[in-house]
Every structure is written in structure tokens, then in C-alpha cells.
Amino acid sequence: MNSQIDLDSIPIIDFYTLDLKKTGTPEWNSAKSQVRKALEDCGCFEASFNRIPPELRKATFGALKEFFDLPLETKKLTSCAHQPLHGYLGQYPQNPLFESIGIYDILSDIEGIIRTVVVESLRLEYKEPRTTEKTIGLGTHTDKSVITLNYQNQVHGLEVKTKEGKWINVKPSPNSVVVICGESLNAWSNGRRHCPEHRCMMSGNETRYAVALFSFFKAGYIVKVPEELVDAQHPLLFNPFDYSEYLKFRQSKASLSQMPLKAYCGTGI
């Protein structure tokens, strides 16, 4: 039986000393255990780093402001309609305060370290993929990604919902990224990693900027639960599915169910 955990904040895990070339160290194994518990309990955690120079942080959010201040027609030049979640995504009618751009194939050593630790926390061998008054800035949702890395300016607003239905106001330090388990990891791990609902609530007069790095499976990749994660205590929850087709499904009205992933490929258990 899973014990209920009352959380007032998301777990903070130290990634300062971790190096992909030095896996298996006591520090690596400690982080792996903490990641496993964090993703099981609440589906997210704050990863603390020292690899984001203040100058880069300032330049990044300055560039974001410059981009979103451009005329609409200029921003639309980056649109990529044939690829879901790529290019300028515009504003959502239901969330007029939210505006975004998706940039393809951004990789970093930070994402690589976190992704490796997350996979190893499932005790699987890691392999490179083959393929005041608040206003809702972005409504309640789950991410379609494997994992999401969220790096924001110090205008907070990200809130994560616990399994018990409590909303946690996430306030990461400038040297941290917030790591959120996506639907794809939830399916691939056979439900062993929790995919939390989250939202962005805005208050005050300052603009909030956030850089979200979404880790996706490659186009055409078939997401299938590893045999090692299916047993009598953990029956198969999700049928294999084409990740690209699932992204298309999530953009259709058919995905408006409360649990779109289960609606798309759930086994009914």
C-alpha cells in the first residue's frame, strides 16, 4: 500500500557534482535514489545546478522578451505547421496570457544527466534513444513529453498538483531547473513514475518568462513498456503506441478526456 505524503514543496535534489562520465559513484547513486522517490511520490523535483552562469540567464530571458515583443506576423515566420509543437505556437484562446515558441532539437548536458538518472532510477540500463488575484496563465495540464525541464525567471507562478489534490507553489532558485515527469515516461514506466498535473497562475504586473526543454521520443518511435517492469504486482497498463501518432491525437478534440493517455493506449486496468 502506498503511504500518503503531505508535501508543502517539491523535493530539491543536488546535481552539482554529477557527471555522465562518472556514473556509479556514491553521489550518483544517492541522486538516483532521490529521483526515484521524488517521481514516485509527486512526479517532479527541483534539480539544483551550478552550470547556469548569471550572464547566460540574463541573456536568455532578455532574448525571450525581445522575441515575444516582435510583431505577430514576424513571429509567425518561425511556425512549423507540419511538425507538432515546433516553431511559434501563438496564443491559446482559452489562455490569452500564454504565448509560446517550440524550438527543435535543443540538447544540453543538464538534460542528458537528468534523463540518464531518471532511467537508471527504474533499475534499467540506460541506452541512447534509437529514434494577489491570481489569473490562469496556462491551465491545468500534463506534459506529453518524457521529461520536462522548466527554467524560469524569478517571477514565480508554476504550481504542481500532488496525488492528494493539493497545489504546491514551486519557487526554484536561479540555479535550479524544475523537472516534471511527462505522460510518455508515465506510460513507458508502466505507471511507476507519476505524471503530475500542473498549471501557471499569474499575479502582479511582472511578465513571467520560462524556458521549457521537452525531452521527446523521436518521430516514429514505438513506446513500449519494458518486460522488466511488468509482473503480477504491476500488470501492463499501456499498450505499445506510436509516439508521433499520439502527439497528433493530443492535438485533436478526441484527447479532451480527463486521462487522454489511457484513452489512447490504456489496457483498461
From TrEMBL:
Q: Which InterPro entries match?
A: DIOX_N (IPR026992), IPNS-like_FE2OG_OXY (IPR044861), IPNS-like_sf (IPR027443), Iron_ascorbate_oxido_reductase (IPR050231), Oxoglu/Fe-dep_dioxygenase_dom (IPR005123)
The keyword Iron is assigned to this record: yes
List the keywords (alphabetical).
Answer: Iron, Metal-binding, Oxidoreductase
PROSITE patterns recorded: FE2OG_OXY (PS51471)
Show the Gene3D superfamilies listed in the entry: B-lactam Antibiotic, Isopenicillin N Synthase, Chain
Q: Name one GO molecular function term.
A: metal ion binding
The Fe2OG dioxygenase domain covers 118-220
Domain of life per record: Eukaryota
In the record, which residues are listed under signal peptide?
A: none
A Pfam family found in this protein is DIOX_N
Q: Which family does it belong to?
A: Belongs to the iron/ascorbate-dependent oxidoreductase family.
Q: What is this protein called?
A: Fe2OG dioxygenase domain-containing protein
* Source species of the chain: Erythroxylum novogranatense
Q: What is the lineage of its organism?
A: Eukaryota, Viridiplantae, Streptophyta, Embryophyta, Tracheophyta
